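note to self: dont lose this again. the chain is below, predicted strucutre after it. 79 aa total, dont forget to put it in the shared folder this time
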Amino acid sequence: MPSPSVEQYLQSICKLGGIDRRIQLKSVAEDLNVSPASVTEMAGRLDSLGLCRYEPYRGIALTVKGRAMALNLLRKHRL
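---
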């Protein structure tokens, strides 16, 4: 079970289009109203958990595992 902050980041990345393409960390920071440094730190954490692919200066995208978890969280929150 991921922490609430991991869930928030996954949902934000999914909502911003991280399912199909890489998105900029700046977009996630603006969406969650957090600092870019916080997003960079969490991107590394999500990458180590296998939930996303993060490359500095190239952005972040969800992996198959991260995509499934994010979509499940979004469905759960819509109910």
